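Blinded run. Sample ID left blank on purpose so nobody reads anything into the name before looking at the predicted structure. Input follows.
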Amino acid sequence: MFPIRDNIPSRRPPVITLSLIIINSLIFFTLSSASYSTFAGFVYKYGLIPAKITKLIISGVPLSGSNLYPFITSMFLHGNTFHLISNMWILWLFGDNVEDRMGHIRFLIFYLLSGVIAGVFHLVFNPISPVPVVGASGAIAGIMGAYFVLFPSARIITLVPSFFLVPVFLPIPAVVYLFLWFLTQLYSGMVYSVIGGTTVGGIAWWAHIGGFISGVLLNRFFLRDRY
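Blinded prediction complete.
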């Protein structure tokens, strides 16, 4: 099921949401014009590699900004065009309303914090993976978790596959759509953890799970006093 739009217009310009989309897009298209070796080198330097962090912890090396920056920088990197577009579409769909409720600065802090927590979840459940994790999906999952709590009665216009190849658009309650989405992430995370890795298929399931949980639990601390 692919979400098309919701039925709640934003009351204020989603400045941060738009800025995040522009920044992520500029970084991706700048790097995509570079050579493969340059792109790969950038990903391995600024992507989140669990095995590297785990090695530091085991070695007793103090964790500081100089070795923890991938928890932030990895959010602004994407592996391919589809990865970028799908993430930015979901950010646009849910981000504007959450930004409305939080205000610009609180929303930005909430977004980054959700992304960091998502990265920590991925590290905990996949500590020896040498694969660099990139993408904004963990932070965006935090936005989805906040939307789940703040706008449960909203309707998500969703494209549903049809056996007759005719597109079917259904208005699904946000609380239902997002709960089902979370269950698919939880199921996939548990299954792929058992068979040997949370990035099977190129998806960091536990980052999504951690981001969503953080959004559900922490959104209340970032809301405006009045709406």
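Unblinding after everyone has recorded impressions. The first helix runs from residue 15 to 32.
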